[in-house]
Amino acid sequence: FPSHDMAHAVLTGLKISSKGENHGRSKITKLQALEIRNESDSLSLKEISKKYNISLSTASQIRTGKTWKHL
């Protein structure tokens, strides 16, 4: 079973999980994602996107938990 093999590889350290900042295309760190969630009341999506150099849609997805769900 391929999914079982991949889970085993991640658990044994043979493969590093590609979630969050380990993903090759990630532009932010785990700490920054948490900051974005916590700043949701004080900053607009536009301000967040400029501060972290990410798109408005990425800022929205982080804020709503659609991405970085594992945090």
What does this structure look like?
With 71 residues, the protein is mostly helical. The protein is 51% helix and 0% strand. It has 4 helices and no strands. The protein has helices at residues 2-11, 30-38, 45-52, 56-64. Helix 2 (30-38) packs across helix 4 and helix 3 (45-52) crosses helix 4. It is elongated and about 45 Å long. The model has no long low-confidence stretch (mean pLDDT 83).
Could you give the order of the helices and strands?
HHHH
> Cα-atom Rg, whole angstroms?
15 Å
Count, helices: 4
Overall pLDDT metric:
83
Largest sheet: none
Distance between the termini: 28 Å
What class would the helix/strand composition place it in? mainly alpha
How much of the polypeptide forms β-strand, as a percent range?
under 5%
Q: How does the overall form come out from the CA principal axes?
A: elongated
Q: How many DSSP-defined strands?
A: 0
Helix percentage: 40-55%
Low-confidence stretches: none
Topology:
Layout: H1 2-11, H2 30-38, H3 45-52, H4 56-64
Helix pairs in contact: 2-4, 3-4
Overview in brief:
By secondary structure, the chain is an all-alpha fold. It has four helices and no strands. It has helices spanning 2-11, 30-38, 45-52, 56-64.
List keywords for this structure.
single chain; 71 residues; mainly alpha; 4 helices
